[in-house]
Amino acid sequence: MKLLKLVPDDTNFDFVRLRGWAFGLTLLLSVLAVGLTVYKGLNFGVDFEGGLMIEERFAASPDLDRVRAVVDAQGVGEASLQQFGDPRTITIRLPVQQGGDEGATNAAVRKVEAALSQQFPGAEFRRYSTVSGKVSGELIRNGVLAVVLAIIGIGLFAIFRFEWQFGVSTIVAIVHDLLMTLGFFALTQFEFDLNIVAAVLTIIGYSINDKIVIDDRIRENMRRYRKMEMREIVNLSVNETLPRTVMTSVTILLALFALLFLGGHVLRGFTAAMVLGIVVGTYSSIYVSSSLLISLGLRAEPEADDKPKRGGGMGDAERVAPRA
Amino acid sequence: MLDFPRWKVAGIWLILIALVSLSIPTFVPEEVTKSWGIHLPRVNKGLDLAGGSYLLLEADTNDVAATRVEAMREQVQTEMRRQNPRIEIGDISSRNGQLSFMLRDPSQVDAARERLLSITGTGAGMTGQRQWDIQVVDTSRFVLTPTAAGLAQAVDTAMGDATEVVRRRIDEMGTREPTIVRQGTNRIVVQVPGLQNPQALKDLLGKTAKLEFKLVDTTADPQALARGQAPAGDQILPYPNNPSGVPFIAVRRSAILTGDMLSDARQEFEPQTNAPQVSITFDSQGGRRFARTTQENVGKPFAIILDNSVISAPNINEPIMGGRAAINGGFTVESANQLAIALRSGKLPIALKVVEESTVGPDLGADSIRAGILASAVAVALVVAFMLITYGRFGFYANLAVVINVFVILGVMALLNGTLTLPGIAGFVLTIGTAVDANVLINERIREERRRGRNIVQSVELGYKEASRTIFEANVTHAISGIIMFVLGSGPVKGFAVVLLIGIATSVFTAVTFTRMLVAGWLRRAKPKTINI
């Protein structure tokens, strides 16, 4: 049986040659993403904003303006409606209720529900949640803290396991991934809630994973070809790991697309963020972190080598093989 | 590396079979596993899948401080009176979280301090820290301030008790399998699967149910009361249902009886009017006290006070000796029942407020499970097919590992009594993707080594060896972000992190060790001349 090879053997793309352009593009996109996030802002979910969210399913796709009119007539504050996937399902967002205690919130939920089921026969309640302003503040704080700690922790690990250049380039690449994700959410105005924080952390995890694989190969090749120029080592390493990079991205994307189309609307934002993250993370492995290694002046230092001596051009691998 | 002694092979299979079989009860309906008569660990469905209500309750810690000062006030008063010689005190007040009082006779300062120390503790307690600061100002005024350590300990105790009370009340409601967990210093998470309208639950938990019986001070001047001035030793309490129309009443500060002297409370109907009422039974100590007080105060009214508001103030027509009493006051059957539950389960030592709440309808939950299972199945099918056409036999081994891994994760979750949430399912799908990455790394490396001209055994061996290092590093970094999510995350983030972390640990075993064993076994048996990879 002939097996599938997505990437032909022994590719030799000159990734590094394009790195000037790539840096320019990366910088431009990052600035754009920051601009968008600041200018348009993120569409925070109730978890972060505080307030009330009611999800209602209607017998048939309802007229949004009529729904809005019905909800507004209840005097529970300005409602924002959102349709997600299924045209019959609508989420209604309301601000934190006056008085702020449970009684007011509850009354609002009951009022809206009663009015909707009266005006739209067959409308059924699916879920609701309320978050007080105080708790939402904590959730934001914890979310930001988690992301920052993850970046620092992983950066430190990269520095300990490799050289400092690897740590720095990895952190820069992750910040890039993060900005792209934020920019994406600012652009699409998808709801940014707690689930998305989990997605962001997973993107960070995946992206690092990708970088570690390439970094690992760069380190290996630095030992194997001591005389080689750094840019050639990077090119060689990226090319050597290319089949794996493509294979893994494709398999994970396959799994994610299944989730995106079949996993239900509750997870849609999460999955969309993940898909974007895989693409952006793969890009940044090649064009941000690996390319940055060259600019940071990483090179193999044959004379000041304190690691155990290995035989000439032979790598670590060759020495072990005979033991089989 | 390809050497697998027989005991090792047996061990690996044994571990996998054990973990996979742990996942079986999860697929069997709960009624069935119960009928087997043994308790089998299973993965529970989270609220987003099962439908139900989630409440996050928060206690006001200032409230604890205030209650503590109030309680100390009564203790001080009794203590000063109880022993000989009696120490006369006056101008006692509890304000700004402090208790202060004057001694009528300044020469008794030392004796008073002695007695205060005996009730505030000299530094005993679990932490060995003092619970109260005692100061003497202007030679005869004592000021007692609860210390931060003492307060923290009090909050901790109160929260522990409150969690218990919450549990009892929810159990009394007859709801099935609620989860009640303390969170942080002053919060309680309540999850009740299947509950659609949490209103009744919230009403019940919103009541502290502090029940007190106090004598009414009929001598108080109504005009002074209206100005908010209570006679010494009295307090003014709201009385919304006062038949006389005045919405407040003066009662003696010290209680005849409190709710902790009850042994039972039931909703009943008043025999004559058939109106709902709550009948209460005192324990022996409470019964004796009630009998004595009613004997001494025949003809006078006493107030029944719930959560600092008077429900009714009946006259004592005759001594009540049976240790039983009934509370009337415009109840509905429901509210009487609720009060009875609240009284039975004891008073909340601290008032609780709902700060976060969500309810998921059962339809959405069922839809989410269906969608989640469908998505997972399709994801597995796609990945399996893709691996098979890319790596042939090696892809098949990887697939076997992935499928086993799904059940192993479920088995481990069942063992840890874990809960599967919708984000958890996403974690599953993602774990499938990343577990495959380990095999991709290995197989690509084998391909590479083959191209470099190494023989089959060497290539496979090197493939596993070199890739293992990368896989280890990649998984450590992944685990770092997983642990951070688990520690800092709440709700959905935590559910996702649990699956991710378990998946990282088990996938190393299935994707690396297990497939290596399969490949090694095949190489030894078949001794292939070429491999198709």
UniProtKB/TrEMBL annotation, chain A:
Family that this chain belongs to: Belongs to the SecD/SecF family. SecF subfamily.
PANTHER family: PROTEIN TRANSLOCASE SUBUNIT SECF (PTHR30081:SF8), PROTEIN-EXPORT MEMBRANE PROTEIN SEC (PTHR30081)
Biological processes annotated in GO: intracellular protein transmembrane transport; protein targeting; protein transport by the Sec complex
Transmembrane segments: 21-39, 139-159, 166-188, 246-267, 273-298
Subcellular location(s) of the protein: Cell membrane
Coiled-coil ranges per UniProt: none
Region (Disordered) location: 303-324
Entry keyword set: Cell membrane, Membrane, Protein transport, Translocation, Transmembrane, Transmembrane helix, Transport
Domain of life: Bacteria
Protein name (Swiss-Prot/TrEMBL): Protein-export membrane protein SecF
Organismal lineage: Bacteria, Pseudomonadati, Pseudomonadota, Alphaproteobacteria, Sphingomonadales
Known partners and oligomeric status: Forms a complex with SecD. Part of the essential Sec protein translocation apparatus which comprises SecA, SecYEG and auxiliary proteins SecDF-YajC and YidC.
Any one GO MF annotation of this record: protein-transporting ATPase activity
Protein's job: Part of the Sec protein translocase complex. Interacts with the SecYEG preprotein conducting channel. SecDF uses the proton motive force (PMF) to complete protein translocation after the ATP-dependent function of SecA.
Matching InterPro entries: SecD/SecF_arch_bac, SecD/SecF_bac, SecD_SecF_C, SecD_SecF_C_bact, SecF_bac
Domain named Protein export membrane protein SecD/SecF C-terminal: residues: 112-297
Membrane topology qualifier: Multi-pass membrane protein
HAMAP family: SecF_B
Cellular component, GO annotation: plasma membrane
Automatic annotation (TrEMBL), chain B:
Domain Protein export membrane protein SecD/SecF C-terminal residue range list: 353-520
Topology of the protein relative to the lipid bilayer: Multi-pass membrane protein
Keywords: Cell inner membrane, Cell membrane, Membrane, Protein transport, Translocation, Transmembrane, Transmembrane helix, Transport
GO molecular function: protein-transporting ATPase activity
GO biological process, alphabetically ordered: intracellular protein transmembrane transport; protein targeting; protein transport by the Sec complex
Location in the cell: Cell membrane
Transmembrane segments: 369-389, 396-416, 422-442, 471-489, 495-519
Primary localization class, coarse: membrane
Domain Protein translocase subunit SecDF P1, residue spans: 161-217
Subunit structure: Forms a complex with SecF. Part of the essential Sec protein translocation apparatus which comprises SecA, SecYEG and auxiliary proteins SecDF-YajC and YidC.
Protein's name according to its UniProt entry: Protein translocase subunit SecD
Organism: Sphingomonas adhaesiva
